[in-house]
UniProtKB/TrEMBL annotation:
Gene3D superfamilies per record: 3.30.1490.190, Winged helix-like DNA-binding domain superfamily/Winged helix DNA-binding domain
Protein known as: Fur family transcriptional regulator
One protein family per Pfam: FUR
UniProt superkingdom: Bacteria
Cofactor binding note from Swiss-Prot or TrEMBL: Binds 1 zinc ion per subunit.
Binding of Fe cation, residues: 94, 115, 132
A single GO molecular function term of this UniProt record: zinc ion binding
GO biological process, one term: negative regulation of DNA-templated transcription
Keywords of the record: DNA-binding, Iron, Metal-binding, Repressor, Transcription, Transcription regulation, Zinc
Similarity comment text for this entry: Belongs to the Fur family.
Binding site residues for Zn(2+): 100, 103, 140, 143
Length: 148
């Protein structure tokens, strides 16, 4: 599955006249290898710098911005001063994030609790919601035990 997804992404880059540089390939592989995480540019940099010591943080930022612009990655702001990225999921319109205020862990919550609200908005305001972003802030299981 990861190889298939990689090839689809590479085709999208080529279709938009972007070269598939070794740096872009490495960053894409890093996201495929860490698909369950929400990586910042700094996270990506720390994961790739030993394989490509001459790759700078600026290259990582430019690549992440490009991949977000092409709709390959989704850029998220979790309020910690760093943008986090994840694969854009066209198959999943609604997913929400659970953000631990203590350790910063981010996990996903896939149940959509807002479909009925979207229907009310459409009916009352004649406004069709096509997407929304919801963040739940609190404490993960591990941090709850240390706070008690």
């Amino acid at each position: 599955m990861a190889d298939e997804q990689y090839e689809i992404i590479c085709d999208r880059l080529r279709d938009n006249s972007y070269k598939l540089t070794p740096q872009r390939q490495t960053i894409l592989r890093t996201f495929l290898d860490n698909a369950d995480r929400h990586l910042s540019a700094e996270d990506v940099y720390s994961l790739v710098k030993h394989e490509y010591p001459d790759m700078g943080l600026a290259t990582v930022y430019r690549t992440l911005d490009l991949l977000a612009e092409l709709g390959i990655l989704q850029k998220n702001d979790f309020g910690d001063g760093r943008s986090r990225y994840e694969f854009a999921r066209k198959d999943l319109h609604h997913h929400h994030h659970l953000i631990c205020l203590n350790c910063g862990e981010v996990s996903e919550f896939d149940d959509d609790l807002l479909e009925s609200l979207e229907a009310v908005i459409l009916k009352r305001n004649h406004f069709k919601v096509v997407d929304h972003n919801l963040k739940f802030l609190g404490y993960c299981r591990k941090c709850q035990s240390t706070l008690e």
